[in-house]
Amino acid sequence: MTIKLRFTAQIKDAAGVGIDILELPKNENLQSILKRLTERYGENFRRILYDDKGIYNNSNLIVVNQVQVYYNENDILNDGDELTLLSPVSGG
Amino acid sequence: MEKLTKEELATFEWQLDVTEHGIEGQQRLKNSSVLISRCGGLGSVVAYELAAAGVGTLIIAHGGNVKHSDLNRQLLMTYDWLGKPRVTSAEKRLKELNPHLNIISIPENITETNVVKLVGLADVIVDAAPLFEERFLMNREAVNQNKPLVDCAMYELDAQITTIIPGETACLSCLYPDIPVAWKRRFPVFGAVSGTIGCLAAMEAIKLISGFGETLKNRLLTMDLRSMEMNTIQIKARKNCKVCSNHNMVK
User: Alpha-carbon distance B219 to A66, whole Å?
Assistant: First the structure.
């Protein structure tokens, strides 16, 4: 199946792209997909998503098809879904 | 409630015709107070738009003196005020636009020491601070005092905004339960990006006070000004949120 990826702010910087496409087997869950993304985009990307013990940094928002989801709910994604990872931003 | 003067009726003539706003909405703006912290790239534009719209009292909290690197986006800071206090520059510029505006200017950023008092003075809070520590303090106190808070933010050409209503919506700590690991104090940005999202924050505050339209409750509006794409994301309260889960949250 194919899912569309979107990244914002520092996650986009670490990935090097704002939009991407991921091909993967059917019925893959969110946590598995995020692990795939760390392998694809490298160490800087991984360090934003996970701490040194491999625990997900919950301050990164996960959005599937414009609806926020939680990491620990570990939803299955479907063909054609759009997965967005939003890095927290501030101001000044 | 204090009525509008003849001069105010003339000043706000064009917006008095806005559907569902009118004279009553304008009176509500006149009798309202908004806390804005800080008055940087975001907060300057929020304050300027609210001063123009006729909000009666602005509480502006911002420490430090004007620097060259403020001037690309902090539109209340002026070249002639380099090295002098930012809040004084902000106050001067706001008074040029609206001499009737009541300004409570605090030459400090939001801290644990001042947050209870400053949030207590306001009907609406606009969170425009660069540090998440300040944002979390304002969020916590807005929830404790049951006051709406507009949270606006940007990075590079990305920007986002949501409106937090205690008891009805996710709060900032629902979105970000911890200090974000990747955030850095200095970040890339154009003033046109902070100005865009600042205008939207001002509009949210105006709607909250006047009482018309739909605010961004439980919705996070995100925009990428590089591609001009905008999205509205449904967000939700976190069940074990350390700030709002004990404040009559509707889960």
Answer: 10
Residue B223, helix vs strand vs coil? strand
**CB-based contact (8 Å) between A47 and chain B?**
yes
Amino acid at B165: I
Q: B7: part of which helix (H) or strand (E)?
A: helix B6-11
Q: Delimit the domains of chain A by residue range.
A: 2-86
Shortest Cα–Cα distance, A4 to chain B (Å): 15
Give the C-alpha separation, B152 to B230, whole Å.
Answer: 15
Q: Which amino acid is at B97?
A: L
Q: Does B128 touch chain A (CB under 8 A)?
A: yes
Residue with tokens 């008891």: B167
Kindly state which CATH superfamily the domain A2-86 is placed in.
Answer: Beta-grasp domain (3.10.20.30)
Q: Tell me if chain B has a CB within 8 Å of the CB of A9.
A: yes
Q: pLDDT tens for residues A21-60?
A: 999 999 899 999 999 999 999 999 999 999 999 999 999 9
ipTM value: 0.94
How far is residue B39's CA from residue B90's CA, in Å, rounded to a whole number? 7
Nearest Cα of chain A lies from the Cα of B22 at a distance, in angstroms, of 33
Q: Tokens standing for B87?
A: 């809040």
